[in-house]
Write a structure and sequence with these properties.
The protein has ten helices and 17 strands. It has 422 residues and is an alpha/beta fold. Strands 3, 5, 6, 7, 8, 12, 16 and 17 form an eight-stranded mixed sheet that branches. Strands 11-10-9-13-14-15 form a six-stranded parallel sheet, with helices on both faces. The chain folds into two domains: 5-119 and 390-420, Medium-chain alcohol dehydrogenases, catalytic domain (Quinone Oxidoreductase, Chain A, domain 1, Alpha-Beta Complex); 150-359, 3-Layer(aba) Sandwich (Rossmann fold), CATH 3.40.50.720. Bound molecules: NADP nicotinamide-adenine-dinucleotide phosphate.
Length: 422
């Protein structure tokens, strides 16, 4: 009898997006503690681009190699000893395993059953694949450490990323204010629409523009859970701004046109501090402000205090600028290294301030059953209430994984890219 075949995306050497190939590969039955998934959608993450190019924290073990750690679909088969999962159940698979061991860029994939979560009623497959990496990472960085309280302000860079947008939504849900950093004015406008309390454009990256249009059937950036909106919620399209904690009803600058559906959020390429616009933390009401002295701008927004938590997805030499934003006793949490550059320890140069610097990956919690269960409860509740709405930038068919990776590496997207299995 010939073995069953799955359609998989693999690569035989490290390199750019073009190394990805669509192939047929045998797929067996799930072993003990495993489940086989009929995949419907696959979340595309920076981690996969780093694995593919040889820059990830865990190197490729052997070729041909597969990719991916986050999918949604339905249960196909379960292995011995697996309880609570039945063939046909709609599920999401959360990143809780090595891509070397369980690659999921495929139409069928075997994964550890411990990484499988039921998909809430009404959550479509694309949303189911766009949620967990971003929201688990954000939850573990913002909520779990217990550093942050309602009314606090945090700083985050790469705010337009799927993790960044999840951080903004979770912060808003908790009454925490955000100072969101982006390198482009276009994304600054979008971030204001997506609920950032303040946006600082750090430059000097030029706007990526619309080189990568939304996938067919998608209208620009889309916000959706696939769950019905609750009363009073905005629609599920770009520009339906989430109300930010402490958001101020300000003007839309003529130099940055408002997105459709924009709701009283200031977007301006000019500094726009205005009397009387202060959040509950006493911060001044600035919208998007031009690049310049980051520390001075953050101090201006926080009455000179700085912030108790800075979340850094970029690392590299810029860490020194970020360390200066932390208030005494606060934390700089490094959870990514998008700069690709060596990261100096900034403490000595800054005169040994009372600063905690720590690194973090979401595997800390996703591989711990108790912590994953708590995080999943928090995130599922947010999805159900409509507080959390994963932002999908574009979708591509699995066979077009090369195009999806090119899009990811263009940094022109806002939110998540998703592969779909026809
Ligand atoms: N620790 C963990 O467990 C974990 C889990 C998931 C993701 N991550 C990390 O979280 C970050 C976001 O990941 P993602 O998959 O959600 O989104 P992503 O696609 O990696 O985010 C893209 C955005 O990051 C910003 N960016 C990229 N390169 C940059 C650079 N050199 N300097 C400054 N900003 C840069 C850009 O935003 P602008 O153009 O707006 O500046 C870009 O649009 C990545 O660093 C990723 O590795 C960590």
């Amino acid at each position: 009898m010939t073995a069953e075949q799955a359609t998989v995306v693999r690569f035989h050497s490290l390199g750019g997006p073009e190394v990805l190939q669509v192939e047929q590969a045998p797929i067996g039955a799930p072993g003990a503690g495993e489940a086989r998934i009929r995949v419907e959608a696959i979340g595309v993450n920076r981690a996969e681009a780093l694995v593919r190019s040889g820059h990830y924290i865990e190197p490729v073990r052997e070729f041909p190699a597969g990719l991916g750690s986050e999918v949604s679909g339905v249960i196909d088969l379960v292995g011995p000893g697996v309880t609570g999962l039945e063939p046909g159940d709609p599920v999401s698979v959360v990143p809780a395993f090595s891509q070397n061991d369980y690659p999921v860029y495929a139409d069928r994939a075997i994964v550890p059953a411990a990484a499988v979560l039921p998909r809430p009623d009404g959550t479509d497959a694309i949303t189911g694949a766009a949620t967990w990496m971003a929201y688990l990472t954000a939850y573990g960085a913002l909520v779990e450490p217990g550093i942050i309280h309602p009314g606090d302000t945090i700083v985050l860079n790469a705010a337009s990323s799927s993790v960044g947008l999840a951080l903004i939504q979770i912060a808003n849900h908790l009454g925490v204010h955000t100072i969101a950093l982006t390198r482009t004015a276009t994304k600054a406008a979008a971030l204001a629409n997506h609920g950032a309390t303040h946006v600082i454009t750090t430059g000097p990256e030029t706007d990526a523009g619309s080189q990568f249009p939304a996938a067919p059937g998608r209208r620009g950036v889309e916000v959706g859970t696939g769950l019905p909106a609750t009363a009073g919620q905005p629609g599920l399209e770009a520009g339906a701004g989430l109300p930010a904690a402490g958001q101020h009803g300000l003007h839309v600058g003529a130099d940055a046109p408002a997105a459709p559906g924009q709701r009283g959020v200031e977007v301006s390429a000019r500094p726009t501090a205005t009397a009387g616009q202060r959040g509950p933390d006493g911060s001044a009401g600035l919208g998007a402000v031009p690049s310049g002295d980051l520390a001075a701008q953050v101090k201006a927004l926080t009455c000179g205090r700085g912030v108790p938590l800075v979340l850094d997805a970029v690392a590299g030499p810029g860490i020194s600028d970020l360390a200066q934003l932390v208030s005494p006793g606060g934390t700089l949490l490094v959870y990514g290294a998008s700069s690709g550059q060596p990261t100096p320890y900034p403490g000595v140069d800054l005169g040994l301030p009372a600063l905690t610097i720590r690194s973090y990956t979401m595997h800390e919690l996703s591989r711990d059953a108790r912590r994953l269960a708590r995080a999943a409860a928090f995130i599922t509740a947010g999805l159900r209430s409509g507080a959390f709405r994963p932002v999908v930038a574009a979708t591509y068919p699995l066979s077009d994984a090369v195009a999806a990776h090119k899009h990811l590496e263009s940094n022109s997207h806002l939110g998540k890219l998703v592969l779909t299995v026809p």
